User: Fold these one by one.
Assistant:
Number 1:
Amino acid sequence: MKWLLLDRSLSFTLAARIWQGLAGPVTLVFLISSLTLPEQGFYYGILGILGFHAFFELGLAQVLVSQSSHAAAHLDSSEVDDSEIRESQLRMALLIKTSAYWFSFSAILFAVVAIAFGWQTFAMKQSDVQWQSPFLFAVLATAVSLGLTPFSAILEGAGYREMIYRLRFFQVLTGNVVVWLLLLSGGKLWATFAAWAVQAVWTGVIVWQGREFLNRFRGVAGQPTNYSWSNDVLPMQWRMAVLSVVYHLATQLFPVIVIRFHSEEEAAPLGMTGTVIMAIQLLAYAWAQTKYPLIANLHASGNREQAGSLWRHTALVSCLIQLLALVGFFVAVVFINAYFPSIKDRFVTPLQLVAYSAGCVAMHLISLQALYVLSRRTNPLFVPSIIGYVVTTALVWYGGYAYSINGVLTGFAIGTVLILLPLHTWAYLKFRQRTLAHESPHEASE
């Protein structure tokens, strides 16, 4: 267990992922038994539209984790003087105040855009499926969750990881139960609202639990500081924002693309397969995500060797988990195709899954590289990422327009494996060479 680098916060995250892995098949059974194929298509189409919140989060949540982690490192340290502690307090106050305004505006804008785009996309299908009310309420619940995001991100970076991951575990647990109950009672597409409503409630609980820390900086907000949003946050954030947008366009709208250009029936298997793939990605990413604040803090404290060793170990475990889970899912899809032909149309074909999985492996490697760079409190690998994601977006959207599911997944695999990953890895290795060259011989041994 020591080799897995488990601590209490990671244990809660893994418990949530394990629960998702166990609950996932149950949810799929309920969806298959409760929804028709067109309803399944709309179900995942709505979830895809709700994913627009990433456009309006603009990568700021991850930046806030990094920035608050660096600020928190000197808040109560006995190794720094009072002036440094005061400066850290002012930085934290500025992060809380400015991000609160930013996300409040973003939440409202998200609701307007998501409703407009979703209504236009779904209404053109002229379907008998009753999607209107569930869709509207789901958008509003997502907007509330988005508005609370900066506070939970700042708390995570400031060291409240165990509390946050514990409550996130209860969120996942209760979210699944509520969705199951709705599906069993005939709630159908209202399950999309339930999932996001539960997330909004638990995010509110996290903010309430951390209110003492957040309120601690009210008295220092607005006082002079060398730290500024425009100089210290915005240069990193705008790059993350652009990356967030092109990433979402390239990877997160597969069912929406197929619904828009073809039909909800064709989108259904892509959506259900994507749900399993996403659970696998989240499980693998858990190791990196929960260790990220620690690694950022180690870099902030100058412990480069320890940070590098922890990151390499974390990345290795994360990749092994992803590969094993993807192989297991492939075997399950082959088994369903061979022995359960009545439900095989709810998932993509095994060959399509190979293309999907190849792209996901590439995306996971890219995510690990990007997180390490961000933990060094520097800009992400911007230019190669933008080039790769833009090309992948073009391949995915044109592929979906011309060839439906086959086109989407082929474009995704080609764009990520042959273009995005090589470009990103080249830039990442160049970054590592530059940073090692500027470190002392002892630090370079990481």
Number 2:
Amino acid sequence: METKTNWLAIIACAIGGMLLGFLFYGMLFQSQWMAGNGITQDLTTMKMMKNGAEMSESPTPMVVNTIAMIVYALIINWLLNRTGSHTLSSGAQVGASIGLISLIGIFVGHMFSSTDEFVHD
């Protein structure tokens, strides 16, 4: 059975994902995120500095992020269609599975980093 892709939903999901990132990194936790990544803002020139060096103002990261969000939305659309998840509860189960798989990867990556932020002996 072939299903059609709802492109309006794909674009809405991509924009929604970008809005969540804007809220998280821009409004809610901007100062903590900047401090954790060694980023400061020069208040006289309004330039962003990372470890004392001026950061590029290239639009490339936003373009790549937009493309990645569209690809993510297409993959989730494919996965939901492939699993036959067309209800809220079945979609939530697929979403929880994706989240758990992502969380495991993040956790393992942090275990191999030189910080013991998540794991204490």
Number 3:
Amino acid sequence: MIRTAVSELRRLHPHPTVVRWVEQVDAEELFLSAVPVGEIQAGIEFRREQGAAKVGELEA
């Protein structure tokens, strides 16, 4: 669920239910394990190799 939520929040128009859920959960209860963090970093590196302009935005 969390990986899906992270991807959804990156969309231009995220689904309102996902936004509402994230807003209702205490930030201290949200976390990502090492696996999705590694997948996100791999995606950033892939885009960097492809010359994507949004790499800086993804790293933020």
